[in-house]
Design goal:
The chain is of the alpha+beta class. Helix content is 23%, strand content 25%. The protein has helices at 28-41, 94-103, 122-125, 196-202, 212-225, 251-254, 278-284, 316-334, and strands at residues 21-25, 45-48, 54-56, 64-68, 73-80, 83-89, 106-107, 128-129, 132-133, 138-145, 151-155, 174-185, 239-242, 248-250, 263-265, 273-276, 298-300, 307-310, 343-345.
Length: 350
């Protein structure tokens, strides 16, 4: 058992009180055994990965934290000459895993470079960026179910993936121990590009295939320009990344917005719904980059209105207060409710 430290030292937005316990599980078996013990105790618990998608209350003195730290990446089987299934332990850094696949010449997750957090947390949120989502490549995972206390293998279809969503996030609590991905060997080239931003940055057409390393370098640059890449040198990266998901609304609601409001057909629903830009809604509700409530140390990023940053010594309450203010302004202006992307832990009124 590690000495207990405040969760502000283990989360990227640097807020969170000191819990009752932090146990670092360095193997799959330790992760399962300790988690079951915590569950049987009936005490409040939290599974912690990289702490990048998390805002924890300042008062969590009764919380028992299980830090996922089991490591390992290994190919487990080949589908055919060009496709390989790779098993990744849950404690691996997501970006470290992406870098590993690029070095191995495997395509499929290169556009998700720079996303903070761990591999085990990634399926819960169905992470994605620049035209790729985890659900594009995930095959199956091992899951310790909170309800049954049993270990199960869940196939991709069992996760019922949606936009930044999964069956686990919607109400199937538990712990992921490892995840398998099916990646492609395309002779060092990426999957066809589905991001106008990457294509423009690299000077190629949409759908082009380019060297994997070029995609990674482009994505890391684009993320850094938005303050979305963790860096000790960038105060705007002291955040959870995007604080709100892009809302998905009916076509009728989308038509009430000004013509210049970005909108994207939501393919999952055959065009019956439309995905909007949360950043555009925030800016057009009158909240600009760098905004903060008077006296607060929480602020909107100076690079991107979708991120809330801790400018130094902010409390969790200040982060939540600013988030609530943003939601209220957008709701009042457009009658659209923004949904927080990070998990909010320990707030009675969240």
């Amino acid at each position: 058992m590690n000495s207990v430290k405040p969760l502000s030292e283990l989360t990227t937005i640097r807020v969170g009180g000191t819990p009752a316990e932090i146990f670092e599980a360095k193997t799959r078996d330790d992760l399962i055994e300790h988690t079951l013990g915590v569950w049987r105790s009936g005490e409040d618990w939290l599974v912690l990965g990289g702490g990048s998608n998390l805002v924890v209350s300042d008062d969590v003195e009764n919380l028992r934290v299980i830090k996922v730290a089991n490591l390992g990446i290994e190919p487990v089987r080949n589908r055919d000459e060009s496709r390989v299934v790779v098993r990744v332990q849950a404690g691996e850094s997501w970006d470290g895993f992406v870098a590993h696949t690029i070095a191995a010449g495997l395509a499929g997750i290169e556009a998700m470079s720079g996303i903070p957090g761990t591999v085990g947390a990634a399926p819960v949120q169905n992470i994605g960026a620049y035209g790729q989502e985890l659900s594009d490549t995930m095959v199956r995972l091992e899951f310790l179910d909170y309800v049954t206390h049993e270990v199960a293998i869940l196939e991709a279809k069992d996760l019922q993936f949606g936009y930044r969503d999964s069956a686990i996030k919607r109400g199937r609590p538990g712990v992921i121990t490892w995840v398998e991905f099916e990646l492609q060997n395309l002779d060092g080239l990426s999957r066809p590009l589905y991001s106008t931003q990457i294509a423009a940055d690299l000077g190629v057409a949409m759908g082009a295939q380019v060297p994997l390393a070029d995609v990674r370098n482009s994505v890391l640059k684009l993320r850094a320009n938005k303050g979305m890449a963790l860096s000790d040198a960038d105060p705007d990266s002291v955040s959870c990344g995007s604080f709100f998901t892009n809302p998905i609304v009916s076509d009728k609601v989308a038509r009430t917005l000004p013509e210049d409001a970005p909108r994207y057909e939501n393919e999952e629903d055959d065009g019956l719904t439309v995905k909007l830009s949360a950043a555009w809604l925030i800016e057009n509700a009158g909240i600009q980059k760098g905004y903060r409530i008077a006296g607060s140390k929480a602020a909107i990023s100076s690079k991107h209105t979708l991120a809330i940053v801790n400018t130094g010594g902010a409390t969790a309450e200040e982060i939540l207060q600013l988030a609530t203010y943003v939601q209220t302004r957008v709701s009042n202006k457009f009658a659209i409710n923004l949904v927080p992307e990070p998990n909010l832990v320990g707030f009675s009124h969240a």
